[in-house]
Specification:
single chain; 395 residues; alpha/beta; 4-stranded mixed sheet; 12 helices; globular
Length: 395
């Protein structure tokens, strides 16, 4: 990848997060289309597990999708299936321990060491579910989808503050699109039993977490418009607008499009507790901004496809940035002279895409390994990247 000035328009792919949820609601409804969907590894995982359940298979492969794993375990239990969940690669290091504790209290037998493979048998019973909500919001989503599929009433009681709440808000929004109501309460969530998912044809909105890469490119040093976005979304990553504004950029909204042009950026303080997926690209913006940026509240990033705090810090240092790792994020002193380097992708789609954006502004050739990891979420990323003036040769 070589230095270039990004200029042009990108039509952003559909939201992976919304698509996961809609596919599961559609499955529980019994029919109805969900589109558009990109042919990413994570979408293949959810579609594959749903098909396996329809075919009465006893082994369900989540590939490397944490969402698929944590959403579908309780959903399968709500259907009374005796199945084993398996996965591949980095998914084998991601915990499902919360379900090891919870499900046996509600009539489901579990065989697991807290990770995959995860074997379940018995039919999930309604009731009161006390959940640690600071590990992953994906557990809450999985339970809401499953408990709404049971006959009796249930409650999800949050024992700890909920992290990444916008993702749960999105779950509730998609479920309500399918005619299922979840009540938010002081203690957590109330789910009335006996509800049925409506059979509808669902249109998936554009993905704000993907839009963030290109909006950041425009703000750092170009003129980029991203099309196909819903400004009334529940996606937490819509906050990229506020984040870029905090850096001094002025994103211009026009209907379902957002345009970002080069501005002089200044350091800021970002609390990433509800926008963990944006941290890699926020850190790249910070490296090009004048002054100090503090990113905090991101400790859960240590348990993603890679330890994303360490991955970002290591790559920023390789291109010459002044960055210090903290327990829950990093401190970046921006606007240092940056240079191309040989970078690691850590088999992590968001790391690869974020540093591909950084490479647009480095004089000379930047090499990132594991580029194929973008297939997890955004297989056409480098096509869109080259269409706005990027010069990526993907080997």
């Amino acid at each position: 990848m070589n230095h270039s000035i990004p200029k042009g328009e990108v039509f952003i792919p559909p939201s992976k997060s919304a698509a996961h949820r809609a596919l599961i609601c559609s499955f529980l409804a019994g029919e109805g289309s969900v589109e558009p969907i990109i042919d990413s590894k994570d979408m293949q995982a959810t579609l594959g597990v749903i098909q396996s359940l329809k075919d009465n298979d006893d082994t369900l492969n989540c590939i490397e999708s944490g969402s698929t794993m944590r959403f579908m375990i309780p959903v399968a239990a709500s259907l009374g299936r005796n199945v084993t969940f398996v996965g591949e690669g980095s998914l084998l290091t991601r915990t499902v321990g919360e379900y090891s504790d919870l499900l046996p209290k509600h009539n489901v037998q579990v065989e697991s060491n807290g990770y995959l493979p995860f074997k379940i048998s018995g039919k999930l019973k309604n009731g009161s579910y006390d959940v640690n909500a600071d590990v992953s919001s994906q557990y809450i989503t999985g339970l809401l989808l499953a408990l709404a599929n049971l006959d009796g009433d249930s409650a999800v009681i949050l024992k700890t503050p909920l992290q990444s709440k916008p993702y749960v808000d999105m779950t509730i929004k998609v479920m309500s699109d399918y005619g299922v109501e979840i009540k938010e309460t002081d203690f957590g969530y109330l789910i009335h039993g006996g509800q049925s998912f409506n059979k509808i044809n669902y249109t998936v909105e554009g993905d704000w977490s993907h839009a963030a890469f290109f909006l950041a490119a425009g703000a750092i040093g170009g003129d980029v418009t991203v099309n196909g976005l819903d400004l009334h979304t529940t996606q937490g990553d819509k906050n990229i607008i506020d984040v870029l504004t905090a850096f001094g950029a002025s994103p211009k909204i026009n209907g379902s499009s957002v345009r970002c042009v080069k501005t002089s950026l200044k350091g800021t303080v970002i609390d990433a507790v509800n926008i963990p997926d944006l941290v890699p690209i926020i850190a790249v913006v910070a490296a090009f901004a004048q002054g100090r940026t503090i990113i905090k509240g991101a400790e859960r990033l240590r348990f993603k496809e890679s330890d994303r705090i360490k991955s970002v810090v290591d790559n920023l240092r390789l291109i010459g940035a002044d960055v210090t790792q903290t327990d829950d994020g990093m401190i970046i002193n921006g606007a240092k002279p940056l240079h191309p380097a040989k970078l690691k992708g850590y088999n992590d789609h968001r790391i690869v895409m974020s540093f591909a954006i950084a490479a647009l502004f480095l004089d000379g050739e930047t090499v990132i390994d594991d580029a194929e990891s973008i297939n997890k979420s955004y297989p056409s990323f480098f096509e869109d990247y080259n269409n706005i003036g990027g010069m990526a040769d993907v080997l």
